[in-house]
């Protein structure tokens, strides 16, 4: 295959699967991917924060419309046909030799060696064993091949393999961390489901009891109205009974007088005796009370208008009551259970994994502690490089940025861009935290915690992202608190790494200066962060002490492996 064909094939490779495009689709940012690769890449990560291009990290809030790149698909198809059926050449190919560009003198091209690792233990052209690795061409070199790569960045094959194994180990650890976080999240969600059921059950009982009490009050009011009607009815009955007795008495008296008059009428008496008896009987008849007084009995009822009015008022009252209860429910401020979701960037698969990582240069950060943030139980040194926990509270003036609850302090310097590193010495086995957080101007901290920190609690070392705890085999293997730690911040990658340092110290209690020399460092943990503002180093100290270390000027630059 010619170099032009190899270059074309490289351009037709998907950056996810590193093979020729299959059913290519175009994103709004202009990058192409295999449809299946893009779907799997997006399915493997949490899309709560939106979607992003695996190559340029351009973010899309909604799922982009994936349009098939027909022209690119046709180019790939024609390329595959030409590759599978190459034209026959009658003339022998010229021997490929190294030139000033530094290409390897192997029969295969540089592009082929980028993707095809060596399967033989030595150089097929020179018959020498592999000894070097070219970073630019990602190819193994023998001693003779090395001469044509003088202008390239090369390293020993042993070192390249060690760095590649380190990259693989870190990727494995990253996935282990992700798996632990996901497993912990599943457990948390299951636990939250039980808490939710129990909490809402208690709430239903409260609401049911409240409405039952309201129903009892309504029943009491109903009985009160019915008692009033009964009382009024009894009063009317008493009046009617009195009238009946009075009329019956008049009726009996008039009946008696009537019988006496009829008896006198039927007697055959002399005229003089009849007149005498008549006068007495007539007096009784005239004096008899036969008058009947009128009596009005009022009908009591509720007309339709009154019934509708009462029903309307009752419905309005019920609605107001229901709304008031719902408003009170929505005003609850107590957190039942809280879980901060892990940032999606931490679990995002890298689009391209380098076989041999390149080195990046970090600059030493010149840090000082910010006395305006120091908790009242922390005492700062005059040079603002040391902080120590004290049982006696310091007479610090009030300041809106001062920590009030946790014994914490931040540095005065924050970083939004670039790559930086710093080292600290730690004394005390009770509890301390080394980390960083985002801070805005004049922010009131009150009880805020450091966003990303490594915590020693007297028994073990743990990594915390807010309230989420991360565990790994490296952290679990730390049986003693590291006395010196290095922190590396890469703002461009969003990476915050912590290293345990091992080196001879001139002062066991507090190292003042770190000298240049051989160092052994162990990567403890890396946070993949998405800052919302400048990142400030910070510390938590409980019966502990921290000091920011000063370095010689010739150690300001630090080279680390780019993952």
Automatic annotation (TrEMBL):
Keyword Coiled coil on entry: yes
Domain RING-type: 14-57
InterPro entries, A to Z: B30.2/SPRY, B30.2/SPRY_sf, Butyrophylin_SPRY, ConA-like_dom_sf, E3_ubiq-ligase_TRIM/RNF, PRY, Znf_B-box, Znf_RING
Pfam families: PRY (PF13765), zf-B_box (PF00643), zf-C3HC4_4 (PF15227)
GO cellular component, one term: cytoplasm
Superkingdom of origin: Eukaryota
Residues covered by the B30.2/SPRY domain: 347-558
Keyword set, alphabetical order: Coiled coil, Metal-binding, Zinc, Zinc-finger
UniProt GO molecular function: zinc ion binding
Coiled-coil regions listed: 158-185
Positions of the UniProt region annotated as Disordered: 81-109
Record SUPFAM superfamilies: B-box zinc-binding domain, Concanavalin A-like lectins/glucanases, RING/U-box
Secretion signal span: none
Name of protein: Uncharacterized protein
Organism, scientific name: Megalops atlanticus (Tarpon)
């Amino acid at each position: 295959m010619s170099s032009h064909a190899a270059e074309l094939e490289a351009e037709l490779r998907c950056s996810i699967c590193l093979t020729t495009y299959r059913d290519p689709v175009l994103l709004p940012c202009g990058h192409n991917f295999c449809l299946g690769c893009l779907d799997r890449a997006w399915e493997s990560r949490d899309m709560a924060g939106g979607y992003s291009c695996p190559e340029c990290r351009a973010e899309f809030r909604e799922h982009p419309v994936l349009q098939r790149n027909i022209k690119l698909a046709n180019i790939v198809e024609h390329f595959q046909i030409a590759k599978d059926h190459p034209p026959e050449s009658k003339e022998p190919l010229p021997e490929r030799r190294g030139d000033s560009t530094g290409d390897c003198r192997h029969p295969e091209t540089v592009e082929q060696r980028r993707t095809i690792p060596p399967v033989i233990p030595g150089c097929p052209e020179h018959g020498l064993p592999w000894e070097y690795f070219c970073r630019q061409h990602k190819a193994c070199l023998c001693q003779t091949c090395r001469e044509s790569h003088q202008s390239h960045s090369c390293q020993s094959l042993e070192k390249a393999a060690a760095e590649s194994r380190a990259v693989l180990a870190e990727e494995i650890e990253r996935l282990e961390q992700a798996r632990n976080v996901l497993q912990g999240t599943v457990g948390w969600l299951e636990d939250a489901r039980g808490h939710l059921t129990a909490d809402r059950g208690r709430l239903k009982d409260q609401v049911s009891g409240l409405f039952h009490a309201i129903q009892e009050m309504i029943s009491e009011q109903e009985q009160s109205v019915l008692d009033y009607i009964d009382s009024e009815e009894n009063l009317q009955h008493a009046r009617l009974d009195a009238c009946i007795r009075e009329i019956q008495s008049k009726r009996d008296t008039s009946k008696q007088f009537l019988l006496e008059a009829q008896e006198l009428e039927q007697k055959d008496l002399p005229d003089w005796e009849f007149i005498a008896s008549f006068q007495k009987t007539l007096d009784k008849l005239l004096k008899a009370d036969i008058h009947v007084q009128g009596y009005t009995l009022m009908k009591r009822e509720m007309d339709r208008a009154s019934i509708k009015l009462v029903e309307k008022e009752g419905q309005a009252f019920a609605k107001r009551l229901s709304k008031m209860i719902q408003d009170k429910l929505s005003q609850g401020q107590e957190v039942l259970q809280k879980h901060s979701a892990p940032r999606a960037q931490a679990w995002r698969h890298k689009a391209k994994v380098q076989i041999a990582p390149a080195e990046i240069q970090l600059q030493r950060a010149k840090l000082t502690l910010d006395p305006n943030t120091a908790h009242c139980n922390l005492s700062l040194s005059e040079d603002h490089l040391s902080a120590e926990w004290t049982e006696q509270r310091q007479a610090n003036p009030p300041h809106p940025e001062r920590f009030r609850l946790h014994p914490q302090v931040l540095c005065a310097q924050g970083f939004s861009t670039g790559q930086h590193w710093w080292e600290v010495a730690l004394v005390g086995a009770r509890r301390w935290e080394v980390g960083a957080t985002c801070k805005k101007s004049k922010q009131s901290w009150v009880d805020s915690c450091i966003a990303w920190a490594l915590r020693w609690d007297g028994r073990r070392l743990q990594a915390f992202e807010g309230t989420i705890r991360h565990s790994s085999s490296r952290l679990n293997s730390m049986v003693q608190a590291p006395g010196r730690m290095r922190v590396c911040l890469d703002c461009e990658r969003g990476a915050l790494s912590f290293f345990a340092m091992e080196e001879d110290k001139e002062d066991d209690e507090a190292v003042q200066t770190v000298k240049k020399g051989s160092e052994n460092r162990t990567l403890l943990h890396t946070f993949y962060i998405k800052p919302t503002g400048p990142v400030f180093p910070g510390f938590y100290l409980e019966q502990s002490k921290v000091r920011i270390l000063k370095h010689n000027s010739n150690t300001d630059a630090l080279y680390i492996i780019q993952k």
